[in-house]
Every structure is written in C-alpha cells, then in structure tokens.
Amino acid sequence: MIENCLLHLQFEFSRDRPSFFRVAREAHLTLYRSMIEELKGPANLAITGKRSKNRSCKYRIDGKPWQEVYKVPVEGCKKAWRFSQPAPCEKPHLNFDPYGNKKEKDYLIGFYDALAMIQTECFMNRYVHSKFFPLCNSDMKVFEWLHEEIRNEYEHFVPKIYLSPIKDLINGSNLCIELSKNLLVESGNVIFFNASANQFETLFFEVLNSIQQGKKFNNAG
Fold first, then answer.
1. pTM of the complete model
2. Cα distance between residue 79 and residue 70, in whole Å
3. How many structural domains compose the chain?
4. What is the rounded CA–CA span in Å between residue 216 and residue 221?
5. pLDDT digits (tens, 9 = 90+) for 40-98
6. Which residues, other chains included, contact 127 with Cβ-Cβ below 8 Å and sequence gap of 6+?
7. Which of 3, 99, 172, 207: CA 20 to 30 A from 60?
8. Average pLDDT, stretch 140-164?
9. Residue 25: band (very low, low, confident or very high) from pLDDT cuts 50, 70, 90
10. What's the half-sphere exposure (Cβ side, CA atoms, 13 Å) at 193?
11. Are 109 and 93 in contact (CB under 8 A)?
C-alpha cells in the first residue's frame, strides 16, 4: 500500500498541472501507512486496541529499571501530542487475559497516536540498532495542519473550495515523505527482502525530487 501511495504521487507529478492538494493528501496517507508499518511488529500488538486516556506506558529495556512515559501537549498544537521523557516507575502489575477483547483488538490506532509513538524509544526499540525520530514543535504543527485541515476537512467529501497555500502544501508533503523514508529505510525497524529496499529508496528519492521541483516552480511563480 505504501508503494501504491508513492506511485500515485509519481503519477500526479507526471501530469502537466499537478494538484499539490492531492499530493499533500497522498503524502499524509504515505506517512500514516509508514508509521503503522514501522510500529506493528510481528503480532500487531502496538497498533491495535484502545488506549488509556493519558496514553501512559510502562516498559523496561535490556533489564534496566522500569520506566514510564505518558501523554503531554505540544506547544502551539491543539490536538497533536507526544510522549513525555521517560521517568522511573514501579514494576507494573500484569493482568493477562488469555481470551482478550476481540472487538478492542480490531481497533487501529489513530494518526496522532502513531505520530507520538514513532518519536519514543520504547515503541521503536524493536531491534538492537533501531532508531526513533523526535520531531520539533514546528514540524508537529505542520503535521497537525495536514491532518486536520487537509485530510480531515475533505476526506468526507464535503463540497468546498480548495483554498490552501501551495507553499504550505509542498512543505507539508516534503516533511511527510522525508519522515516516511526515514522510518522505512533509515530506522532499522523494517526488514526488506531481495531488492525491495533499494526499490523503495529509489521511489522515495524520485518523489522527493519531484516535490523539490514543485517548490522551485512555485517560488518562480
């Protein structure tokens, strides 16, 4: 599905007059799918199920003391959030339910949950050399704008005039594709088979180059 997103972006850029609004929507979808792929693990446990209201998570890595992270606001954002810095905590009491809640497991985490998780060590530490990707407040504001004003506003087919600055659409698209590339190619969390890693990397660079060309065209106009 991520490859399809990138191919759709290539097709849009191949048109005489590409729609940067469609580019931004597809770039947002690419990022969301990339975050889910990055976080899902072998059993999808990290990306399914309801979350606590404060999104707290207790964890331990490599036998070190238990630590906890929880939801904190991002300055300048109304809905986007991130996890706090890790703090020492007591060992959690595990209440294992062998049957689980099937309905709850069918619930896929939302965009903001995934965006917070890819910035946090405890969710990204799948392999020894895995990386996580902290984001600055200004980038978080851009992702919130893309999600709320571009994706959510028009995803439900409400008749509206598309009034979004091309410069903002291009910059937001560039951020989405850059982060998607880092997640899939640079993080060390996704295992590719055969030559698919090189194919993905090539696709990402081609799309990023097209976005840069669009940025130059817009500046020239």
1. 0.88
2. 15
3. 1
4. 9
5. 877 788 888 878 888 999 988 888 899 999 999 999 999 999 999 999 999 888 765 54
6. 188, 189
7. 99
8. 78
9. very high
10. 0
11. no
Structure-token pair, residue 60: 């331990």
Please tell me the distance from the alpha carbon of residue 110 to that of residue 65, in angstroms, as a whole number: 30
Q: Of 211, 123, 116, 127, nearest to 171 (Cα)?
A: 211
Q: What is the largest CA-CA distance in the chain?
A: 61
CB 9 within 8 A of CB 23: yes
CA angle in degrees (0–180, nearest 5) for 146-149-152: 90
Number of H helices, E strands in the chain: 9, 5
Distance of CA 76 to the CA centre of its chain: 19
Please say whether the beta carbons of 186 and 131 come within 8 A.
yes
Alpha carbons 101 and 77: distance in angstroms, whole number: 33
What type of residue is 144? E
**Residue ranges making up the domain that contains 97:** 2-220
The two tokens of residue 204 are 């990402």
Query: What is the rounded CA–CA span in Å between residue 21 and residue 39?
Result: 28
- DSSP label at 108? B
* Residue reference for tokens 């580019």: 23
Q: Does 99 score more than 50 pLDDT?
A: no
